[in-house]
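hey so i finally got around to running the thing on that chain from the lab meeting. sorry it took forever, my laptop kept dying and i had to restart like 3 times. anyway pasting the input first so we r on the same page abt which one it is
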Amino acid sequence: MKLKFYSVLASVFILSFLNINNLAAQGFHSVSSKLLLDTSTTWNGDNITYPEGIAKITALKIEIEPGAETGWHHHPVPSFAYILQGELEITLMDGRKMTASAGEAVAEVTNTIHNGKNIGHETLKLIVFYTGIEGGTLTILKDSD
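ok and heres what got predicted. didnt touch it at all, straight out
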């Protein structure tokens, strides 16, 4: 009986030791950060200004299939995107363009009509954070102006 108890105890100790080493190898006890975006302007150089009202933050995960487009639209509130996968091309009405790829962050244009397009060969996945207000609109399609 004692031998069985010590065998179980030894097994628990070994498994605990292996588990701790596994967690440490996965970085469980460390924290790191990487600056993704630090700006006071949108990608086209306009100053970022916040709307008046009760602040409301909205985050959306957006997926766009290869070759697909968002359609012409604008955002009346500041928004910021992080590209998880794929390649995004944003075009303004005046023809200016910018591209962003996986791992990049973008300060989106505000009150400026633009179109987003997936120019890659895989589904574009991005997270967009909107800094709006209670009861406000995040996106307005060009045809609904």
